[in-house]
Amino acid sequence: MIADLQNPKAYPEKTNSVDLVQTHISWVFICDDFVYKLKKPMDFGFLDFSTLEKRNYYCHQEIVLNSRLAKDVYLGVYDVVFEKDRYKISTDDDNDNDTQEPVEYAVKMRILPDEVLLKNKFNAGTLTMKDIGEVAKIIAKFHSTAARSTKIDRFGSLATVKFNTDENFHQTKKYIDRSIMQVQFDALKRWTDDFYKRHAEVFQNRIALGKVRDCHGDLHMEHICLTWPITIFDCIEFNDRFRYSDTASDLAFLLMDLEFHYGGKFAEKLYKTYKRYSGEADADFDLIVNYYKVYRAYVRGKVNSFQLNDPNISDVNKFDAQNIAQRYFELAHSYIK
């Protein structure tokens, strides 16, 4: 199927080329004007795409949730079908008529201009403080209007955030002395457990302030496009626990990502502008943002480490993933010194 979908003839619209990009959870087929994304049949515990039914459900969730910050980018869920000895993406008519049984599902997206992705502008040296200020305003507005409820509030509780970090440490034990050093692992676990003992009330205070919301969950430089209006895409659809969070956690991800790429001045601008436009006046805000920067850097280290066990990824790419994971774990460690 993956080989067939790299053939331009597998798509309903004309395309001259198809490039395949893989993540640890997706196959992404980049055509001339559109992108089709398939979910890998994986079960990591925190993410379960193990059945066709589940992949279909989460494809539709991806469309709904991303409409909040990327209204015109997500175009629908399309069937992957097997026809005349080859796999292809069904046409609109195929989807409407249910003439063929789907063997897989793909999220169709409009291609965004590469040159104005925040990360690419940063790398090209064309990112401005004004750009970052506008991003901060968009995020602050989104956070102020994002859904909240008593159910969502529970995801900002100490019990839930501790569950998340306990899971992180459990899942990264096997990468000790591969992508994370024993001394880093021990120090980060000790610091995290101590934070819960010393600042347990902060998590309850944030809930009381209405700061736990249905957020983006994966807010980093590659998911922000500086079009007008600004487009923020690819939120987490596969686990409410990672999207329902303190707004400080959402912000901390982008701050951490900028700092990972040596963009400290931009991170500072983002932070100051966000605080001004969000009206964030919590005395513990600095404290909780730093906590979540540690958490976010650790998660990125974990996710990149997962690629070391993916049989579909080449040894060269595994080597790169290991180096990137090491840097994320080093950054997490630097936040607690």
Note down, in words, how this protein is organized.
The protein folds into two domains: 4-111, Phosphorylase Kinase, domain 1; 116-335, Alpha-Beta Complex (Aminoglycoside 3'-phosphotransferase, Chain: A, domain 2). It has 13 helices and ten strands. The protein has helices at 52-66, 92-97, 118-124, 129-145, 150-153, 158-172, 182-198, 200-208, 240-243, 247-260, 264-278, 285-306, 315-335, and strands spanning 19-22, 26-30, 34-39, 74-83, 86-89, 104-110, 212-214, 224-225, 231-232, 244-246. The strands form three sheets. The chain has a six-stranded antiparallel beta sheet. The model has no long low-confidence stretch (mean pLDDT 95).
Global outline: globular
Strand order of the largest sheet: 1-2-3-6-4-5
Q: Could you give a short account of the major beta sheet?
A: 6 strands, antiparallel
Radius of gyration, in Å, reads: 20 Å
> What percent of the residues sit in helical stretches (DSSP H or I)?
40-55%
SS summary, helix count:
13
Secondary-structure arrangement, i.e. CATH architecture of the largest domain: Alpha-Beta Complex
What would you say about this model in short?
The chain has 13 helices and ten strands. By secondary structure, it is an alpha+beta fold.
Write the layout of secondary structure elements.
Layout: E1 19-22, E2 26-30, E3 34-39, H1 52-66, E4 74-83, E5 86-89, H2 92-97, E6 104-110, H3 118-124, H4 129-145, H5 150-153, H6 158-172, H7 182-198, H8 200-208, E7 212-214, E8 224-225, E9 231-232, H9 240-243, E10 244-246, H10 247-260, H11 264-278, H12 285-306, H13 315-335
Antiparallel strand pairs: 1-2, 2-3, 3-6, 4-5, 4-6, 7-10, 8-9
Helix pairs in contact: 4-11, 6-7, 6-12, 7-13, 10-11, 10-12, 12-13
